[in-house]
Amino acid sequence: MKKLLTLLLVAVMVLSMVCVAGAAELDEVFDDAGDIDLMNREAVAVLNGMQIIKGMTPTTFVPNGTLTRAQAAKIIACMKLGVQKAEALSAASSQFTDVPTSHWACKFVNYCAEQGIVSGVGGGKFNPDGKLTGFAFGKMVLGVAGITGEFTGATWDKNVNKALKENELNKGVSVTSKDMNRQDACHLALNALFYGEDTDPYSTVAYDAFSVTRASAGNAKNYEWKRPLVLYTCEESDLCWDGTEMTVTASPFLVYNGGFTCGKLYTDLGNKTFDLDHIKGWRNGCSFDPNTFGTFPAAGSNVGFMCTGNGVTTEWYYDATTEIYTHVIIGNRAFEIVDVTDPVISNDGEVLTPGSVTVTYDGNEFSCECNEFTTADIGTYAICHTNGSKWREVKSIVEAFKPVLVTGELQSEDNTIKIGGKTYKAMYDTLAKYQDVSPYPADYIAAGGSLGDTVHAVTDGTGVVYAIYS
């Protein structure tokens, strides 16, 4: 407990190794880091930092590439033994005819087979380059965590799925009969590494093999939406990253795009609830007073969770060391683009200076780094995350995203949005007073438009409209 308290007091990052990436630095290490889901960025950063999994090349991680059976064997061996001991394994002989001793993964496959974690595909073969389903990798991860069960026979996959859920090893990651990709594999592996930390952070696979523990390190800056920071501490610096500590932005275990009920949250939490002492909330850079919530997870509740709806993203985090649930609510708005600065790119394609986009809001201009737009987009609209002390009072534009533009005949005049025969949803809590354009047809018509006009609609591709203009 004394060690844990010490960890909780530490909030300084010591990280300077090129092959190691914190969640915020993945973009600097891997050219395809943008393809890593928010849910998986922490896991990829940490497993890469622990050197359990590396990029497919020095500059690419290939997050959506399918995990192979040989790659999975190496990950499992490194998790169980630590990277140094796993790499020191030898392979004087092979247990499978298609994995000769000259194969790079032979020693890992042999070890996993000896431990009863993997088996062949029949005929004395292992099929090292074969694809691996989520349930198959889940079975291996259960073995690492020391969780046993009936994982053979006709219902092995159902039993694996049940065991993953019961032990919450699938929290934040989808495990199915489909092929497991590399980034999801990292998430599942991270869950297994720290399985049991809520009971004893020094009796986990991560601590046994790497001397690594993790703890809360506070919240990120406003531009990170106050997402929780996680501090990973290694007692022996040569086992992982350079130094003993690495701080990353936490990955959520739940993300809602749009509104959700307290009943759904209760179900998604695994039929669990929380009290006022175990919840934090952040909205557009400001914090909630828990005593003002008034809505909590409850079985079967149809009450909508506060401040959510169309055009609102809610991310949920959980810290096992403090048992605190944190939710971050991000509201989106559409603003007119008035200027675009192109990025400065070197001959080899490196972005030397990021581009920017400037938007107008109620007569004020705001700029943020963004490479999504060109000068041809001036006069159209961007979807922006806003950061302010009040829900409708914009202090700055934090991020801007290129919307999906829809053009067609306006076919409704009330708050049911129908354009070109397709029905859309309006962004949550929109008041024309607080922005340049409205997503509601009634506001468009009140401003001089007419039913039957050919209009443009700013959408996010999920059926939510942020603005209608002629």
How do you describe this structure in short?
By secondary structure, the chain is an alpha+beta fold. It has helices at 2-9, 26-29, 41-49, 69-81, 83-87, 106-114, 134-145, 156-166, 182-193, 205-210, 262-268, 441-446; strands at residues 212-219, 228-234, 245-249, 254-257, 279-283, 286-287, 312-319, 324-341, 344-345, 351-353, 356-361, 364-369, 381-387, 396-401, 404-409, 417-419, 422-426, 454-459, 464-469.
Estimate what percentage of residues fall within beta strands: 15-25%
Helix content: 10-25%
User: Count of helices?
Assistant: 12
| Poorly predicted regions | 1-21
Number of strands: 19
Radius of gyration: 25 Å
Main sheet?
9 strands, mixed
Structural class of the helices, strands and pairings? alpha+beta
Q: What is the overall silhouette? A: elongated
Helix and strand layout, with pairings?
Elements: H1 2-9, H2 26-29, H3 41-49, H4 69-81, H5 83-87, H6 106-114, H7 134-145, H8 156-166, H9 182-193, H10 205-210, E1 212-219, E2 228-234, E3 245-249, E4 254-257, H11 262-268, E5 279-283, E6 286-287, E7 312-319, E8 324-341, E9 344-345, E10 351-353, E11 356-361, E12 364-369, E13 381-387, E14 396-401, E15 404-409, E16 417-419, E17 422-426, H12 441-446, E18 454-459, E19 464-469
Parallel strand pairs: 5-8, 17-19
Antiparallel strand pairs: 1-2, 2-3, 4-7, 5-6, 7-8, 8-11, 8-13, 9-10, 11-12, 13-14, 15-18, 16-17, 18-19
